[in-house]
Amino acid sequence: METAIPSSTARPVRRRDRLLTVLAATVATLVGWVVAVPLAGVELTARSGGGEQRVGPVAVAVSTLLAGLAGWALLAVLERFTGRAGTVWTVVAVLVLLLSLLGPVGGGVGRAATLTLVALHLLAGAVLVPGLRRTAVR
């Protein structure tokens, strides 16, 4: 049975849970990067603007943080305009995740890099989508 949180405490709890979700996704993708790059020896390189660049831990962390914060912002906006924010947000989030996979599929340099980049995208989505959806106002 779900316990209702008094409205005076609901917003800070929701904010905390969303922040923890974004941070958990960031930590998860960084752990994935550590396992793939330093431990497994994957050369994580992607094509970018006609050249190639290595994908380091800062890029992984910043990308995940930005994706998480963008998802959080979209959810907050949807909560102001629709009573079905959680459902609408989830559909949009899954579509964005699927579209984001086009980047690594077309830009990864080599099979290992491509698979690792896809895995990092899916890992971020696996934390962000259910984590942020869980915090949606009902």
UniProtKB/TrEMBL annotation:
Membrane-spanning ranges: 20-39, 59-78, 85-106, 112-132
Pfam annotation, one family: DUF6069
Superkingdom to which the source organism belongs: Bacteria
UniProt keyword Membrane, yes or no: yes
Keywords annotated in UniProt: Membrane, Transmembrane, Transmembrane helix
Annotated protein name in UniProt: Uncharacterized protein
